[in-house]
Amino acid sequence: MTGVTELGYMRLGVSSLARWKEYATEILGFELAEEGEPRRCYLRMDSWHHRYILEEDGSDDLNALGLRVAGPEEFAEMHRRLVEAGVLHEIGSRALARDRHVLELMTLEDPNGNPIELFHGPHVQYGKPFHPGRRMYGGFATGTAGMGHCLIRNFGLDATYKFYRLLGMRGGIQYQSPRPDGSINEFMFFDCNDRQHTLGFGIGEKKRINHVMMEAKSFDDLAFTYNLVKARQIPIGIDLGRHANDHLYSFYFANPSGWMCEYAWGSRPALAQSEYYDGDVYGHDHQDAVIDEQWDVRASALRAAE
Questions:
Q1: What residues contact 81, with CB distance under 8 A and at least 6 apart?
Q2: pTM here?
Q3: Can you say how many angstroms the Cα of residue 265 is from the centroid of all Cα atoms in its chain?
């Protein structure tokens, strides 16, 4: 079935472009790309023109997920499928496509109010090799697996499952974690390529986005970033550990917009069959002074870091 092939880019609304530029280059290792646009810049992770668009609008939240389809035929098929399913969407103008550095796109929302831009034909600059903002040992794992994964807002797993299956993604429950009161918290994940999951749902409702994951090619980059975050006294919300589903070794830390970035290494590919887990392999201890039970960064932790 024709469907989404990767998470290609993200648009993020921020309060302080200056703070994000410093954080993205000096902590994450992204390359800053500016084209003279007021209150806007781009971040690179590889040969793509951008993987992130930062827009200084004060929202400190997700402005859009850029989900890729293979080409014009698949784009037309996706449009037909959304029409038949009664899903509201709009084909973007040529000017909007140029603004996003893609050939075509359409805009819509998922059942949780998360904004999506379905596109094909990204602007790729092989003549402009990726140049990290600070030293790196191996760069980022992107390629056919896309830019990484993110956990976004969810109001109902049944509607979420139906919608993303319509987009051609494959998913289901992967974690069933017990709460202190004896109830079960379920987490749903979707894949669309070799990456074990591209989108996750189950927690975080204060903002549209809970966290975004970037995967380093080298363990040294994960260790270097961990030491850098500690040296800069950036609040760490979830300490080093290994996930059961994707086997990523990672940690989570606050960003200037009040949600989290997950820096990771060592994923396994998506499985052909489903599994579920009741916890991680080891580690990933939650720092309660930094995050609450919904994995939202506490305002007090951010104030302490400023």
A1: 2, 166
A2: 0.96
A3: 15
Q: What angle do CA 150, 240, 247 make, to 5 degrees?
A: 60
Report the alpha-carbon distance of residue 41 to residue 46 in Å, rounded: 16
Select from 29, 65, 22, 21 the least CA-distant residue to 46. 29
- Provide mean pLDDT across the span 246-266: 97
Summarize pLDDT for 23-69 with one digit per residue, the tens: 999 999 999 999 999 999 999 999 999 999 999 999 999 999 999 99
List every span in the chain annotated with CATH 3.10.180.10.
Answer: 6-122, 143-305
First to last CA, the chain: 48
Give me the pLDDT at residue 202, please: 86
Q: How high is the pLDDT of residue 295?
A: 81
HEC string of 230-284 equals HHCCCCEEEEEEECCCCCCEEEEEECCCCCEEEEEECCCECCCCCCCECCCCEEC
Q: For domain 6-122, give the CATH number.
A: 3.10.180.10
Q: Which CATH number fits domain 143-305: 3.40.1190.20, 3.10.180.10, 1.10.1240.10, 3.20.20.70?
A: 3.10.180.10
The letter for the amino acid at 102 is V
Rg of the chain, C-alpha, whole Å: 18
CA distance 261 to 196: 18
